[in-house]
């Protein structure tokens, strides 16, 4: 296993010349200057990541990280814990929201079991760290060693996939109760109060919100995570799938491929990943604004503006999968539109 420092060293700055070339090409196309709005900025960002390679993403993966959470015991979610295992099966069998949306976008779905309670699940990639995390309301989610080795394992897997042809990665997650550790991570990493980062998750009854906030406050008080040490924050108040997503982000940047974010849980992971590796930021592509309370705060802390807001809060990578056609569209305008000159238009 490589060291984290070694992986971080592989993250290159995006290619400013390629970005400049793409910007010039977009300005020459048969349209009023800038009229394709943020699609143009997206094409420029993608070009800066692709460098000399054609602006095209033939091989896309939606990577779903899944695990269970000890804090489920605190009554912070209405979902039975076994839904994590059941829905993992649905995802790999092509029946879940993310499966359908990824299929429509021409992307493959991979589900990594980082710690789902129960036996190994056929069709998933098994990397169980434990049968769920520790309960963050009473102690750490995992050890620092577990967090670091999972982060590195996840980054290395993405690097290996990119070496065998993967050109674009979208992340997603699955884990009953995981909006609780994610809210704790976002609070600690941004300095916000838990009351600003805790939301209703997957339909928690609003009269249980105050309890969920108190669980996050307790998790922070009991574990005392160090806000300047994202690995400490993830180990103490995070979750296996949240660490694995952060690792995938680091791996994508190290491999020079774009990484599409999903919802609130991916924002929490991105905040941690960006603290560990600030150089990965230019590789991140937001998709949607999650409906979870705290989503705007987390995205603002990341300095990212989402591309769409459909009131989604499914997770699984569903919003990230929905952004893939937008990415193809940004490439297509850059590659296929005629120029003003070809059409004898002078502006
Ligand atoms: O993606 C989001 O923004 C999002 C917001 C709320 C809930 N979820 C999904 O719902 C589960 C967590 O919700 P909860 O209420 O059990 O903490 C987990 O499996 C997530 O994929 C996802
Ligand atoms: C059915 C179901 C599917 C999910 N997918 C992500 N979180 C979920 C929570 C539930 C309850």
UniProtKB/TrEMBL annotation:
User: Which UniProt keywords are listed?
Assistant: Cobalamin biosynthesis, Glycosyltransferase, Transferase
> Which InterPro entries does the record associate with it?
Nict_dMeBzImd_PRibTrfase, Nict_dMeBzImd_PRibTrfase_bact, Nict_dMeBzImd_PRibTrfase_N, Nict_dMeBzImd_PRibTrfase_sf
Keyword Glycosyltransferase among record annotations:
yes
* Catalyzed reactions per annotation: 5,6-dimethylbenzimidazole + nicotinate beta-D-ribonucleotide = alpha-ribazole 5'-phosphate + nicotinate + H(+)
Any idea which GO molecular function terms this record carries? glycosyltransferase activity
Highest taxon of the source? Answer: Bacteria
What Enzyme Commission number(s) does the record list for this chain?
Answer: 2.4.2.21
Q: Does the keyword Transferase apply?
A: yes
Under SUPFAM superfamilies, the record lists: Nicotinate mononucleotide:5,6-dimethylbenzimidazole phosphoribosyltransferase (CobT) (SSF52733)
Pathway in which this enzyme or protein is active: Nucleoside biosynthesis; alpha-ribazole biosynthesis; alpha-ribazole from 5,6-dimethylbenzimidazole: step 1/2
Catalytic residues (positions):
316 (proton acceptor)
EC category name: transferase
Q: What's the family?
A: Belongs to the CobT family.
Listed PANTHER family: NICOTINATE-NUCLEOTIDE--DIMETHYLBENZIMIDAZOLE PHOSPHORIBOSYLTRANSFERASE
Q: What job does this protein perform?
A: Catalyzes the synthesis of alpha-ribazole-5'-phosphate from nicotinate mononucleotide (NAMN) and 5,6-dimethylbenzimidazole (DMB).
This protein is called Nicotinate-nucleotide--dimethylbenzimidazole phosphoribosyltransferase
Name the gene that codes for it: cobT
């Amino acid at each position: 296993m490589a060291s984290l420092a070694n992986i971080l060293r592989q993250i290159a700055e995006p290619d400013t010349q390629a970005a400049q070339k793409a910007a010039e090409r977009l300005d020459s196309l048969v349209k009023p200057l800038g009229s394709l709005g943020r699609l143009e900025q997206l094409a420029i960002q993608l070009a800066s990541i692709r460098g000399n390679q054609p602006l095209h993403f033939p091989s896309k993966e939606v990577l779903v990280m899944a695990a269970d959470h000890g804090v489920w015991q605190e009554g912070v979610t209405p979902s039975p814990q076994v839904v994590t295992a059941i829905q993992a099966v649905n995802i790999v069998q092509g029946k879940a929201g993310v499966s359908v949306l990824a299929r429509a976008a021409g992307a493959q779905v991979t589900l990594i079991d980082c710690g789902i309670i129960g036996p190994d699940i056929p069709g998933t990639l098994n990397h169980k760290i434990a049968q769920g995390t520790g309960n963050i309301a009473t102690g750490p989610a995992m050890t620092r060693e577990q967090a670091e080795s999972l982060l590195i394992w996840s980054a290395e897997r993405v690097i290996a996939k990119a070496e065998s042809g993967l050109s674009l990665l979208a992340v997603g997650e699955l884990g009953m109760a995981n909006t609780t550790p994610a809210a704790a991570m976002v609070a600690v990493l941004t300095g916000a109060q838990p009351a600003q980062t805790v939301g209703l998750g997957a339909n928690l009854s609003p009269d249980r919100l105050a309890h969920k906030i108190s669980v996050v406050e307790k998790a922070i008080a009991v574990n005392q995570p160090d806000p300047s040490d994202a690995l400490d924050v993830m180990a103490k108040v995070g979750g296996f799938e949240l660490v694995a997503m952060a690792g995938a982000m680091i791996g994508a940047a190290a491999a020079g491929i774009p990484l599409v974010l999903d919802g609130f849980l991916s924002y929490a992971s991105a905040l941690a990943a960006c603290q560990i590796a600030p150089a990965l930021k230019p590789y991140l592509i937001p998709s949607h604004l999650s409906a979870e309370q705290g989503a705007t705060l987390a995205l603002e802390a990341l300095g990212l503006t989402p591309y769409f807001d459909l009131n989604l809060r499914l997770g699984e990578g569903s919003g990230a999968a929905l952004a893939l056609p937008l990415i193809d569209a940004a490439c297509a305008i850059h590659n296929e539109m005629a120029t003003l000159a070809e059409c004898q238009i002078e502006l």
